[in-house]
Amino acid sequence: MKLNMIDAIHLGLQEELVRDEKIYLIGEDIGRKGGAFGATKGLQEQFGADRVMDAPLAESGIVGMALGSAMAGMRPVCEIQFADFIFPAFNQIYSEVSKLRYRTNNDFEAPMVIRAPYGGGIQGGLYHSQSIESFFAHMPGLRVVIPSGPRDAKALLKTAIRSNDPVLFLEHKKAYRSLVEVVGDAEECFPIDQAIMKKQGTDCLIITYGLFVSKAVKVAEKLAEEGYSVGVLDLVSIYPLDQATILDAAKASGKVLLLSEGNKEGNVISEVAAVLAEEILFELDAPIKRLAAPDVPAVPNAKTLEDAYLHFSETLEEETRALILF
């Protein structure tokens, strides 16, 4: 069955609600309205308001209530309407959710998922376009997972829901309806802690995640017409990083280009670069290249400015070619 990403997420949630009665959904407008993007459309009618719960505009309350119920044996899936709005719940996530297992010496677990759409390219402006993953990639105890397409989204979400660790599950909103592919059956689950080689290559390796995996694959296919072999590695797990797969893939190519939509300084890919430099610097054939957004406060609203902010998406091909020829 071919689905776009938002429908794949909807189906994954529906299948998990059927599978386990301890699972429930909570978020702003997810019940009667089906969520801002339709990920939960019709689920309240199917499963009732006790399992698909509309919450007040209070992200801290949503996450705090979910944590309490997770400690009591439930398996909540929270929806933050836009990732930009997650910061009122930052203290709950950082001080409580990520530390629960540690502070209770494993007496309590937090089997909960926090879903949030992130990313630009839709003219969402300052409060509906940010890439917030780097803020949360510094929280031992919290897993941060970002799918790159419909099949991965469904299979990774199911694994996240079944995990006994808390998972922040970020979905690029521009990918919701722009990517379509065949999804797996109700029992297809992918590991949430393993990077995935989307394309093998020996001349250069692009390491990225989320929406930019599909963009990187297209660039790799175009450069293949010129005789170049470009690999694409999907990080999947932003925290913790799958360092073994990253290092093995980088060794196989010798040249690495890192790609992210977040601000360049302090980015997730900066940590990837540090791992590469620390472990295999002298096995690489060229300096590590990073492509990311400029260090400005937010994604602009005007299309011309947003395009300028996301310029690295358009220069990926030439930057990859330049690295190969270095």
CATH homologous superfamily placement of the largest domain: Thiamin diphosphate (ThDP)-binding fold, Pyr/PP domains
Q: Name the strands of the widest sheet in spatial order.
A: 3-2-4-5-7-6-12
Helix-strand makeup class:
alpha/beta
Mean pLDDT level: 96
- CATH level-two architecture of the largest domain: 3-Layer(aba) Sandwich
Largest sheet: number of strands, sense, barrel closure: 7 strands, mixed
Order of helices and strands: EHEHEHEHHEHEHEHEEEHEEHEHEHH
The helix content, as a percent range, equals: 25-40%
How many helices? The count is 13
Total count of strands = 14
Could you tell me the CATH topology label of the largest domain.
Rossmann fold
Description:
With 326 residues, the protein is of the alpha/beta class. It contains 13 helices and 14 strands. The strands form 3 sheets. The chain has a 7-stranded mixed sheet with strand order 3-2-4-5-7-6-12, sandwiched between helices. A 5-stranded mixed sheet has the order 9-11-10-13-14, with helices on both faces. The protein starts with a strand and ends with a helix. The relative contact order is 0.12. The model has no long low-confidence stretch (mean pLDDT 96).
